[in-house]
Amino acid sequence: MGNATQVFQTNNSSRWKKIKWTGRIMFFFSVFILGVVILAIVHAQNPSTVVSSGNYSGNQTSGELPSYHNKKIKGFKEYLAKKEAEEFRLKQTISSPKTSGQFIRAAFYTPWSGSKSVPSLERYGDKINTIFPEWFFIDTSNNIKLQSRIDSAGLAQMRRRNLRIMPMLTNFNPPCSFPPSKC
Fold this sequence. Notes:
It is a single chain. 40% of the residues lie in helices and 13% in strands. The chain has 183 residues and is of the alpha/beta class. The protein has a domain at 101-177.
């Protein structure tokens, strides 16, 4: 064991030369990058604007055409002004309470909960504008078929309140409790 050579041991010195030269190149590259960063920090300036003399004004009092740069940024300034006005209108719309009709105020309706669902819909139906009733089920016990269990009292209440009805389709088929005649 005393005379055994290492796994990566070699008598050729080319590997050591490659490591030395790679280290030297990386060192000089790092020094160069560091020098560039230091010069950038020392000589930091704000870049000059595109239009160095005067700003664009839409009202030209003299008969001259606007300069090349003013023509170039005119459309951009109009675009920014339009976007700013749009954002202001949107912010006003969101903050005003009388436009809350554009938002969705939704609730779930479960007719199988029996005596609680229709009275709850009667009590709170004017506070919502969309309802998700659980009316359609996929029966997976025998062959796959669609079962509809539409609650007529709940449907009448939803229509009376003028709610947007978006029925749900579920694949959970509980033991039949609503309505017993459809099971």
